[in-house]
Design a protein that fits this description.
The complex is a heterodimer of chains A (133) and B (132).
Chain A (H helix, E strand, L loop, with lengths): L1 H18 L4 E2 L9 H4 L7 E7 L6 H14 L3 E7 L4 H6 L7 E6 L4 E6 L4 H11 L3
Parallel strand pairs in A: 2-3
Antiparallel strand pairs in A: 1-5, 2-4, 4-5
Chain B lengths: L1 E2 L1 H21 L2 H15 L4 H9 L8 E2 L1 H22 L3 H21 L3 H12 L5
Antiparallel strand pairs in B: 1-2
Helix pairs in contact in B: 1-2, 1-3, 1-5, 2-4, 4-5, 4-6
Protein name (chain B): DUF4395 domain-containing protein
Organism (chain B): Streptosporangium minutum
Keywords (chain B): Membrane, Transmembrane, Transmembrane helix
Amino acid sequence: MVLVTLVAATLVGVVLRRRSGVPREVRGDVERLTSGDLEADLGERATLVQFSSAFCQPCRATRRILAEVTEMVPGVAHVEIDAESRLDLVRSLNILRTPTVLVLDASGHVVKRASGQPRKVDVIGALGLAVGE
Amino acid sequence: MQADPRALRFAAAVTTIVLALVLVTGSAWLLAAQAVVFTLSIFGVSPYGMVFKGMVKSSPRELEDAAPPRFAQGVGLAFALVGLVGYVTQITPLALGATAAALFAAFLNAAFGFCLGCEMFLIIRRLLPAAR
């Protein structure tokens, strides 16, 4: 029982570590978010939308990373949303974890999505796709 | 409130060992003791954290928010209590299942720094549509 549990947890841990924070392309119906949905202005070229919650360890580091990227790349806005106060959006976008980061293009289409703390280079890479470089 | 992330990892490692021992020995008393530890940790007085502070004098590179791990201790307590009910009523699958779930989460935290209990927050919150 102990062994089975620990092996299962190790497998889950390895998969989580590998997948966590890696921006994935959004397949199927591409969602579009408006500034009304976000209750904030979209960035001129792209927007990084971060869903956070009160009991989220990596949210603070994610906020820092996204703020740094926003400063580096002109025309990009960073919008942080408290998941708990926007459960409507959380449900419609099927967000299960915090932080979840959505990369929106200039018109608000969700281009990429990462759950877990993303790496800075990955965010910059995903932004390249959003702004069409 | 801020917490030393090393103390949290240490506490998770001790919790992992204790819960593994519960499964091996089938001791409801040990699980009850762990439930008390969970309860104390919710209120910010983690006994395992204190042991760590007693052994390690250096200060951490960075502090982190204490609210997420405290919430996770609450989730741990819920599983420990369900496990206790299982041991006391001798419903073995309940006892083993709940204890194993707590062990699973504690090990993920100790080995990977991944807080499963914290992740439960949004999922529980999503399941409660009325409370907004």
